[in-house]
């Protein structure tokens, strides 16, 4: 933008944009150099012969994947149902923990800015940095393989997500509504329930449903580390190179995700 | 008091707090559905409670195994995995963002002809439906183990994420502004550069920074299916019961995510 | 005296000295207008009374109770006796009219009764009576964000009255309303104060409106009281001390015209 403006603008202005131009070009150049260097690194760890073979491999893979093993679907209904339950129960768990956490973390509702808030922010970041698959990996070691590890993994990962977005919503509320309720002589819990909760409810419902939608996707792969759901079947089929079964699983996942996305969009539309 | 007869007592007796959902039919349908789901979900939950109870004790031992975290013994492996993750993150974000722009333009109904629109929307849908891990499985099957598969996976996921949000942004921009540029007789590319780009640019930068953050977090799990990165190292540590090394890796991941989060929110504030 | 402020001083953490040792007495049942330019400290003054803003020094005594220095629970009980009305109405937008009105009783009911909206029948009856009085009894279950400005301010007034207060603290009640609605709202507040024998401090920066509706006027300038007297003594000289140099003849003439106009209305 600055370049095109200089033509009819004042000279001083032009000098400044020229300096800006250099900075911008420099940044682009540095970014490009960094990207190329990174790619070199990856390239050094790649067996290119395999990559050149990829089109053949791909074509071969597609050939082996079709037609899908339609009858395999009969075995998949239960794991799919488990997957949905992992996502749903995990999200409910995260809501139950994340909602109060958000109030402890938000600047305007936390009982202590110096102590409670930093602790909550640390818990939130830890929960968010660790992918649900890693959570699952840990929990499977602790609780053994199965749905429980999956539900807890989804829950632990989602707590941070829900708490973070919710506390941001709490920090953005209209303060005068809070003052008005405080001025009536309401107690702190009453102010929370009457002035703050109504204001964040739509955002909170939207956040929860949005996370549920994400969790459906996440739950489809938890089985790869033994945490229940359809990922277990996926793992088994891949290990036995049963590609038509893999295709069938993909189709089922696709269908479920499309439906969950539709549901989530409808609910978010309804609450806003 | 006013002269009109108004029976406050009767009105008060008749008044009920308004329910959350106005239509009684819908209300009971939703309550009934929720109850039914809860029964079904809990009824089909397969949890080995005995094993889970044992888990608490195991968990304690497990957590004890985490302390103190061991950064030293496997420092070479950790560095290697970290470099793979970071390079993968940078390259895939750059490639993904670059490719997402044409896809976003193609997926904006107000700019693209129908066939292109449908094609671009299909790319977005596929990329968003499948969890990164599943896509990584396919790429590993095609190009072999290593960070290249991870890089391709993340690039593909970035395209879907960015293109969807940018396309929505393009569709939302003030139509008059685009009209004004079009009225000057500008070509389609000039329209893009003058009417659309300035409006979506801040969001494009903000989203790219956010996606960089996500890509790093994802790069930490792709190793579970052989697509390179720190996840590979982590998985190995878990497999060998080297929990102190695993703890060190988790701490490194959290630290980097924290750093990324701060810098990406800083970038977003800058472009706002 | 219902309310006595002595040596009330407020310094914000930013360093702004908003009130400089204000002394003020308000007898039972008196409606008083507090005028002054923007930034004079009017809002700060009434917020110090119910301690939405914590005074830096000085004392606030309401009907024999020293408000400054009360603990949290006692402060809540004291707040029940002071109803507050806001410029931007400050209704909880996503709650219904009735819920907003009942929120005036929060200081009197326990948490769980209020959570389940179980208010004593007397409170609900009183709510209906007051809503009828302000002409909103047909809108009880409408959401607050569906109301017009004038209607919202009526709900705000009813919420304050539900507290069964002795004193109303009113912060620019008409600043967001059109001139006609402004007058109606001011008249309503005055009538209600008279009916119930309430005292009120009304912040207002519309001099004409203040003069028309309040008998006693207090002028605040830069955190200090520079005028305290009956509305009839509000001369151009006085206005100059409050607001600074300006041609006041227009304003004062406008007031007189307004008054004539207001009589048949
Ligand atoms: N929350 C606050 N923090 C810092 N300074 C404030 C705050 N509120 C008001 N002030 C300052 O106090 C002074 C009086 O403000 P205020 O009481 O709102 O005046 P008025 O209501 O008469 O317009 C002003 O100088 C204002 O800048
Ligand atoms: Mg003010």
List the helices and strands and how they pair.
The complex is a heterotrimer of chains A (272), B (272) and C (265).
Chain A: H1 2-6, H2 11-44, H3 48-52, H4 54-65, H5 73-105, H6 116-129, H7 132-143, H8 147-171, H9 175-183, H10 188-222, H11 230-239, H12 243-271
Chain B: H1 8-14, H2 24-43, H3 49-66, H4 75-106, H5 114-129, H6 132-143, H7 147-172, H8 175-183, H9 188-222, H10 230-239, H11 243-271
Chain C: E1 3-11, E2 17-26, E3 31-35, H1 42-49, E4 57-62, E5 65-66, H2 72-79, E6 82-85, H3 97-102, H4 111-115, H5 121-133, H6 149-162, E7 167-171, H7 179-196, E8 199-203, H8 207-213, E9 216-221, E10 224-230, H9 236-243, H10 249-262
Parallel strand pairs in C: 3-8, 3-9, 6-7, 7-8
Antiparallel strand pairs in C: 1-2, 1-4, 4-5, 9-10
Helix pairs in contact in C: 5-6, 6-7, 8-10
The structure holds adenosine-5'-diphosphate and magnesium ion.
The site of magnesium ion has 3 residues of chain C, from α1.
Question: What would you say this structure looks like, in words?
Answer:
The complex is a heterotrimer of chains A (272), B (272) and C (265). Chain A has 12 helices and no strands. Chain A has helices at residues 2-6, 11-44, 48-52, 54-65, 73-105, 116-129, 132-143, 147-171, 175-183, 188-222, 230-239, 243-271. Chain A starts with a helix and ends with a helix. Mean pLDDT of chain A is 85; it is low at 1-7. Chain B folds into 2 domains: 19-65, no CATH class; 74-271, MetI-like (MetI-like fold), CATH 1.10.3720.10. Chain B has helices at 8-14, 24-43, 49-66, 75-106, 114-129, 132-143, 147-172, 175-183, 188-222, 230-239, 243-271. In chain B, helix 10 (230-239) runs antiparallel to helix 11. The longest helix of chain B has 35 residues, at 188-222. Chain C starts with a strand and ends with a helix. Chain C has a single domain (30-40, 79-261), classed as P-loop containing nucleotide triphosphate hydrolases (Rossmann fold). In chain C, the strands form 2 sheets. A 6-stranded mixed β-sheet of chain C has the order 6-7-8-3-9-10, sandwiched between helices. A 4-stranded antiparallel β-sheet of chain C has the order 2-1-4-5. Chain C is globular. In chain C, helix 5 packs antiparallel against helix 6, helix 6 packs parallel to helix 7 and helix 8 crosses helix 10 (249-262). Chain C is an alpha/beta fold and 265 residues long. Chains in contact: A-B, A-C, B-C. Chains A and B meet through helix 2, helix 4, helix 5, helix 6 and helix 7 of A and helix 3, helix 4, helix 6, helix 7 and helix 9 of B. The structure holds adenosine-5'-diphosphate and magnesium ion. Magnesium ion is lined by residues 42-43, 172 of chain C.
